[in-house]
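Sample pair:
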Amino acid sequence: MQRVLIVEDSKVVQQVLRHLASLYLEVEIDFAWSLKESREYLSKHQYTLALVDLTLPDAMDGEVVQHTLRQNVPTVVLTSKIDEYSRQQMLELGVVDYVIKDNRDSYLYAVKLVSRLLRNQGCKALVADDSMISRAVMRQMLEKQLFTVLEAQDGEQALHMLKEDYEIKLLLTDYAMPTMDGFELVKAIRNNRGRDELAIIGLSGAGSHGLSAKFIKFGANDFLAKPFMNEEFHCRIMQTMEQLNLIAEIKEYAHRDYLTGLYNRRFFCQQAEKLFKAKPEQYILALLDLDLFKSINDQYGHEGGDSVLTQVADLLKSVFNHCMVARIGGEEFAVVLPGNDMQVAERAMNDFRNRLAKTQFDINGEILFSTVSIGLAFCNHGSLSQIMRAADKALYQAKAQQRNRVVVYS
């Protein structure tokens, strides 16, 4: 579990940081006022990251930074001023980054920086460079940012690693490499993985005119000229990964139903069509429709109906967490069950139906019960629309047979 230590001796600043942390950080956080208190916390807990003030009443010369780093805790420094000597001193110590606290926006930036770094943990980055020294330097800098770092000594090796491991989300590639240069590597990668799936930063120490433009035209997200400053490297990586995450969030929002958080009909149809085309015999489709839902809306209003839908969606997510679950209509849901044993699927749906019938739905303090009718169909009936029609016919039969039952299409 991730845990963050924040050390700040100003009551006002700590109050600001506490408020911002509650908005942006969903991890365990400990707040300390001094070096002494920091040591006590560090003796009790393992920390993923530390955000610390450079000067404290009992540590005027940055001793708290030295202590967190000695404990192998990646550290971001808060400082009220910075000169070249202090900057070099902090970089030599090995801090992740420093933030100059001269206004409220500085604290917001610091907390968002911590949030970004925490998201990096477990994320894989690949460094492709034929220079062992360059790879080692970038590995060290990326590991400070909590990335899991892999290395490739040329473009061909990097391309092979990327094809084998889709968990790699960031590539730093040099231009001049044997067997396959950086341009050729980027072009080959973009045939399979877009800018929204893999972030690429081009690198080069060459002074060739237009090199950065060429990298970006071939598909890189950004470019860095070597040698680069620590701060420039850090900011480019952070901004590039932030863009990647924002795109992923936008896509996720586009795929989700606004009310229940389940997949929406459009995304469900796109994904189900791919699954059923590839291995139709390996899936069973279930369509579920809440019984007499109109009466709930009539009695409790649409707000009450929405409350029931969200509670049903939560139950579906809990029970079928290994399946694709979607809301495809007003009170209609779909579940794609893996496997081709209809008896197993029918039993699973009957278990869910019984569980739902016993569930107490709370609407503004009032308790009500609901039931669901379910239609099942194998996914080898042809196109997606034909499969859905088959499941829908079974669902209609369940409704005609006094509801609250599971029917298999035949």
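The chain has a mean pLDDT of 92.
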